[in-house]
Amino acid sequence: MAGTKEQIMDVRSVVEAVTAAGDDVEIDTPLYVVESLCMRCGENGTTRFLLTLIPHFRKILLSAFDCPHCSERNNEVEFAGEIQPRGCCYGLHIPSGDQKMLDRTVVKSESATIKIPELDFEIPPEAQRGSLSTVEGILVRAADGLGALQDERKKVDPQMAEAIDRFLIKLRACASGDSSFTFILDDPAGNSFIENPLAPSPDPSLKITFYERTPEQQAALGYLADPSQLGGQSDEVSSEGINNVPHHLLKEPHGSVGARAGRQAIAQGNSAEIAEALFRYSAPEEVMMFPSTCGACAARCDCRMFVTNIPYFQEVIVMASSCDACGYRNSELKPGGPISDKGKKITLHVENIEDLSRDVIKSDSAGVEIPELELELASGTLGGMVTTVEGLITKINESLERVHGFTFGDSLDEDRKSKWLDFRARLDKLLSLGQPWTLIIDDALSNSFVAPATDDIKDDKQLTFEDYVRSWEQNEELGLNDMDTTSADAAYSSADAAPSEKADD
């Protein structure tokens, strides 16, 4: 790297320098060189560290080791930024003979797991640490690692060595494109990516899902300090298990342990902004407070909850908590009442500046579509949020930059780069209202809402609501096909019938 400054420092100085670096990393960041032990020959080599910021992606720490005695070399990519609110899972189907699929860029963080279901093969996080490579490069590296000790295995366990040889043939066939397979990249930290060359359009071969982390995954990422929060508790609690519970947990108020486990479902957001937006409609009559635990530092904090009614919409439940110890804040907006019998499609024709200020409630089951841009976001892409039309477009822009990673960077070829720049210009043009455009929110659970611009919602000609019957596939995705409420309905019916019978008597 031209102009990069190199200086010899000890490990402590490097750690302090990296920790003190701000979010904006300058291009001339020094290259730190540390003397370190070579694990192959036992002599001293050198490790170089470079902290840099990849445009529209992450702040990363590059490290490269070189031993002049045995020529051992390795490199690693570590993420210096924050852990994402949710984990991510990328699934890429690669047909045989498609070399372009194998050339896709893959960013694998140190917490990511790679799986190939067809081979029953898994690369755990500790096997290949953070790296920037391609699909082919990751598979070739895994094959080389498995074959490195084959000579020793043949002497100790010939049958095992023979089985690994047969497996390596299948793995190398996938790496060369001779066999079709599915490449799955699962990262609880949410900091891994697989390139989408068709971006911003969806790729039919690439499936991206986001999920809430389990307590075990939270603990692996360093979020939880208390082992009692991990799953593994059974319904039958022995006296020995109770005696092993830390003494301070036994003194916690009733309900705090349950609240700690329940916070996994709380969406990430800004509590103050959500509360301020909802107070425009009606102030809560009663704010309930119950003890909870911070999701970042495990300190005790309070969670506030209130129920409010939004005109022309429905009853909603707002939960918000903040930690005085570390400043972590989270919030959740959930619909109240029963599950709607039908889905709802909301269409808003944006024509003037006032339309950009309309309040929008988007649930985590809603999808967003803008026909003028040929842009369609699947349900759950942005999570649940309370915002405005302008804020929703801004969130879409930020989400596209984050999800597609390097596709906004300098390494992109000119054709695809011009395509991205044109799309971003068209996206920004929506906010400048160069021409009218349409916002469509499709929510299968009918839990989303766009505020009308008139006192009577029927007088708002730019805003339309359309109810529709959910398909079997939508009910299956939402888990409604397996939901059986006949027992509860019978119990409620008998309870309602009992008072009427007594009245007749």
UniProtKB/TrEMBL annotation:
Compositionally biased tracts (Low complexity): 484-498
Major site of localization recorded for this protein: nucleus
Q: Which Gene Ontology cellular-component terms appear in the entry?
A: cytoplasm; nucleus
Molecular function GO labels: zinc ion binding
The segment(s) forming the Zinc finger ZPR1-type domain are 36-196, 292-452
Where does this protein have coiled-coil stretches?
A: none
Q: Where is this region: Disordered?
A: 479-505
Q: Which SMART domains match?
A: Zpr1
Q: Mind listing the UniProt keywords for this protein, alphabetically?
A: Metal-binding, Nucleus, Repeat, Zinc, Zinc-finger
- The UniProt transmembrane annotation reads none
The answer on whether this UniProt entry bears the keyword Heme reads no
Subcellular compartments? Nucleus
Q: Which NCBIfam families match?
A: ZPR1_znf
Q: Please give the family membership noted in the entry.
A: Belongs to the ZPR1 family.
This chain's protein is named: Uncharacterized protein LOC107784372
**Where does this protein come from, organism-wise?**
Nicotiana tabacum (Common tobacco)
